[in-house]
Amino acid sequence: MTYRHIKLPQDGKKISLVDGTLRVPDNPIVGFVEGDGIGPDITKASLRVWNAAVEKAYAGKRKIHWCELYMGEKAAGLYDGDYFPQETLDAITELTIAIKGPLTTPIGGGFRSLNVSLRQALDLYACVRPVRYYQGVPSPLRRPEEVDVVIFRENTEDVYAGIEYQTGTPENEKLARFLREQMGAKFFDDAGLAIKPISPFGTKRLIRKAIQYAIDHGRESVTLVHKGNIMKYTEGAFRNWGYELAKEEFGEQTITEEELYSQYSGKQPAGKIVIKDRIADIIFQLLQLRPSEFDVIATMNLNGDYLSDAVAAEVGGIGIAPGANIGDVVAVFEATHGTAPKYANQNKVNPSSLLLSGAMMLEYMGWKEAADLINAAYPQVVGDKFVTYDFARLMPGAHTVSTSAFADALIARITGDADDLARFEQERREALERERKEREAQRVANPLEAMKESGRQPTTAGGIMSPIKSIAASATVDEAMHQMRENNISSILVEPDGSNTWGIMTQRDIVMKIVGANKSAANVKVSEIASQPLVTVPSDLSLRRVSQTMIDNRVRRVVVESNEQPVGIVSETDLFRIVEEFGWEPEE
Ligand code: NAP
Prior knowledge:
The chain is an alpha/beta fold. It contains 22 helices and 24 strands. Helix 1 runs parallel beside helix 11, helix 12 (368-383) packs across helix 14 (403-415) and helix 12 (368-383) packs across helix 15. The radius of gyration is 29 Å and the shape is elongated. It starts with 15 loop residues before the first strand and ends in a 6-residue tail after the last helix. Bound molecules: NADP nicotinamide-adenine-dinucleotide phosphate. NADP nicotinamide-adenine-dinucleotide phosphate is lined by residues 38, 102-105, 115, 319, 334, 337-340, 349-350, 390. The site of NADP nicotinamide-adenine-dinucleotide phosphate (NAP) has 15 residues, from loops.
């Protein structure tokens, strides 16, 4: 493709996407948009650091060929007042990956935010924000090192879709009339109205990306954040479609949190990612009190907007938070703060947000070694209290340095002892792994306490069931009793014999049908005293209905079924413990 102002570097090769896999040559062309205001300062500094990291990591075998692209004020100067030139969009599409500084949204004249326009024009539907703590960065948390989450925020739907009608306009009146007269809706006069579309398509492509990311990066869990208890058909549907997608497309690589407790007794099977969900309001508290419980988060536009800034604030604020907007093909990495025009061209501000977005980009390209060098050098420089003014004012005794001097200090670290840096990053990963293991040990030792602390409130039969233990119908009662005692269980399922029907044998059966009937446990087969047929419930049945089933059938335990196979048992004792532990909110 030929361009008016954009010059593709001759020596570089384009990155491509083949069958969903990124193909990155050793000399890729990557687009960059300098940005407005402080953009040029932070871009210049960051480019030097990225280049140094790539050079050091690959000893000159790999090199990025940068291609300048234009948006914002620089574009307006070149393209006759056009802030958002089509050829920049074409070039980003052709190059697949780009990184950009902040852009001014011109005030007045009906301009839309350039960032929003970019996301829409290229259908960059996933806003990805990794938030992790770097040693030395000022933080209000007691244990900020536990924060290491990646937020996937849906970019195209929700109340952000712009389907909004101002009070007093004919459109607003028309919609209000329709809602009241045709749909029976009730709301105050003159209300502004907006529509909140959440579709299975939009939801699933976002969650698919989040789960794939978790798989590719060996993450522990994906949490779906929603307010589905109130907005059932939008946010609740998001959660349901998320679980559906995980089961349909990632059935081999994922388990639900419910299964983690009920089928795996809290021990996460190797290679499986746990899919869980949390209500949007409680997640804000949990991410402050127990951030280590969360890993990858997938949520809708509005929740994600609040959440990404709130979590970033825990570990240094949006001034250092990296981010990217990613679609099916194209990915644009960006500084998450604005243009801070009062600091433009003063070589003063903190380049971290753009710089770390670049590290994220390198990782996305599969150039992890280069990303690791930046991620490891960064806390060392900040730890030396060698920081820009914004951090310096929060760190007693800090040396305030310029944007370029901060970059110089990073480069000195990166080009210094790289092995040392790699070890540092490795140690951090190992510390995170140790924390995971500690949480797992707690889940196994005390599942109820672990559930409670992690913000999980079980609400269905599957959520509280114990995994089944079974025995052949032809075994003796003696053998069954031995197995029950070994596993510390009060009932055991009896496998189908010729009749193809499962049965259950309980401690009570032994008291009544063996001891009470004066028989020998060694001479009676379990099939002779087992109860059939089983009283079963589906795993998604609410706890109230589980209780009702026990009352109706005069039994003390029910068997939980999934795909017509028994998968667990819920007893009166289990219900009692859950209510005692978590309280009981009557269902609506
Ligand atoms: P802003 O540019 O983010 O600046 C607000 C304040 O944040 C600054 O005054 C400064 O605080 C601090 N800050 C931001 N970046 C910093 C950095 N790199 N290093 C140190 N401190 C930094 O927000 P704004 O003033 O609301 O917006 C200005 C323009 O940016 C607007 O045109 C807006 O539309 C645009 N904007 C663009 C993006 C984007 O392109 N992604 C995002 C947001 C806003 P102190 O004054 O306390 O030092």
